[in-house]
Amino acid sequence: NERLLELKTLLSSCKNFPGCKMQAIDFEKDDDTNFHMDFIVAASNLRAENYDIPAADRHKSKLIAGRIIPAIATTTAAIVGLVCLELYKVVQGDKPITAYRNGFINLALPFYAFSEPVPAGKQKYRDKEWTLWDHIDVQGIKPNGEEMTLAEFLDYFKKVHDLEVTFVCHVPQILYATHMRQEVKEKHLSQRLSEIVTTLSKENIKEHVKALKLEIDFRTEEDDVNFPFIFYQFR
């Protein structure tokens, strides 16, 4: 969307000018030059996509936004305001973690408190280090355009990460485990991962889904090593 790209460019440019300060403004849904509805339509439809909710076009979004204005002084509105304050810092970039804040509010008291966020805990195995926010991308489409099989997926982790994978899960389906019956295991090893998921779930993977979120386990000489999630790109 050209209007959203223009808005992003405008916000990003502010950090290059020390005297550039944000000004408080009122929400106005009927002004097509202020980007208010552009942001609401884009953000709400991204959320709808995440939760498989039907998307709303600009006209419907404007009608909905017009009806919720009287509820502006609610806890929800206060939380959104605090989130947006942190979002400004993200857009401006180059901010240390100490610049951000966790917010705690209770409008009934009233009570507002803020604290610095704690860095995400790190896990390490051999020379690899990660947090719960990290994931590993695996390109499941081979150079010939075909999707890799489960056997090739396991071989990928052996060659690239030197890990002997013993368990692969796409919640709630278990795609592979060393304790599986031999005939089931051999069948799965020769199949594509997306094919196994479709068979176990008894439904087709939706067209907009481009990657599968997988969990794996592997043999290790250490205890309690939770490897990052795998984003397996199969489209």
TrEMBL record:
GO terms for molecular function: ubiquitin activating enzyme activity. Pfam families: E1_UFD, UBA_E1_SCCH. Residues 100-230 form the Ubiquitin-activating enzyme E1 C-terminal domain. Pathway: Protein modification; protein ubiquitination. One of its GO terms (biological process) is DNA damage response. Keywords: Ligase. One of its GO terms (cellular component) is cytoplasm. Belongs to the ubiquitin-activating E1 family. This is Ubiquitin-activating enzyme E1 C-terminal domain-containing protein. It comes from Chiloscyllium punctatum (Brownbanded bambooshark).
